[in-house]
Write a structure and sequence with these properties.
Number of strands: 7
Bound molecules: guanosine-5'-triphosphate, magnesium ion
Number of helices: 7
Helix content: 25-40%
Strand content: 5-15%
Distance between the termini: 28 Å
CATH architecture: Alpha-Beta Complex
Largest sheet: 7 strands, mixed
Length: 246
């Protein structure tokens, strides 16, 4: 518990057996539940996470957004904190982010990696791609966003009752921010954090994911799909995380 709120940490993982051990070893004591979503890893990610006390959710269908949807559907907490399983985001900053979150008055806080301090933690190509995506998102959605691709967020679980999250892939990261910043009842703020070299191999496919994320920004802006909020799935929708038997 932190300030009388139940805190959950959700971590999507695809082959992160080394990184997840480092992340889990640093989770603060006030965190009530840690959900590691094992996205059909071929290494020992799930076993490592379970042996370190995390609740492991198995999501067989690969995809960053898909993994998050499965994890978020299983959260039993007031506040959700997210990060990657590669130990690139600062686990030690969780209490700092929660403190800012509670004082900020917004229901969605995103941790921005820019201006990046440790230059080797992100290649020039990734930095450039991120800039293009963040500027495009800022223009399309009339709101300055420094790091549209950050994977570390703190948000009120109630946000999931209203957010309409379409993407099952990498665009999920920008999409959840769009859903937050467009809704006055949620509110969006960014705060700087330090980012470091990831442990293990990158799962990002820079050109495919970069282009996919760019196209998604336009598709969502001009041709949004009518889908139910994550926390209230339509019973008729097969395959939706909440409707699937375990
Ligand atoms: N790309 C990708 N990541 C997944 C998937 N499922 C789970 N993940 C996890 O989502 C997180 C983000 O993926 P990363 O490969 O770290 O992508 P990134 O942080 O944009 O890029 P890096 O700079 O390489 O860390 C990691 O913890 C992955 O293990 C998937 O299908 N695709
Ligand atoms: Mg990463």
């Amino acid at each position: 518990m932190y300030k009388d709120k139940r805190i959950a940490v959700v971590i999507p993982c695809l082959n992160e057996e080394e990184g997840i051990a480092r992340v889990l070893s640093r989770i603060p004591d006030f965190v009530d539940e840690v959900l590691v979503v094992d996205n059909n890893s071929t290494d020992r990610t799930g076993d490592v996470a379970a042996s370190m006390g995390a609740r492991v959710i198995h999501e067989k269908v690969r995809g960053y957004g898909r993994a998050y949807k499965s994890g978020l559907a299983n959260v039993n907490a007031d506040i959700v904190v997210t990060l990657d399983g590669d130990h690139s985001y600062p686990v030690d900053a969780i209490s700092y982010l929660l403190e800012i979150f509670f004082r900020s008055g917004v229901k969605f806080l995103s941790a921005s990696r820019f201006p990046i301090r440790s230059k080797q933690s992100m290649s020039i190509k990734h930095r450039l791609g991120n800039k293009i995506l963040s500027i495009t998102m800022s223009i399309l959605y009339f709101r300055w966003v420094a790091d549209s691709q950050s994977g570390m967020w703190v948000f009120d679980k109630g946000c999931l009752d209203v957010m309409r999250l379409e993407s099952d892939g990498m665009p999920f990261s920008e999409e959840i921010k769009i859903e937050a910043l467009r809704r006055k009842d949620i509110g969006f703020k960014e705060v700087f954090i330090d980012y470091t070299n990831r442990t293990g191999e990158s799962k990002l496919e820079p050109w495919k994911d970069g282009l996919g994320n760019l196209l998604f920004l336009f598709q969502k802006r001009f041709f949004p799909k009518a889908i139910p909020p994550l926390a209230r799935p339509s019973p008729s929708e097969p395959g939706f995380p909440l409707n699937r038997p375990d």
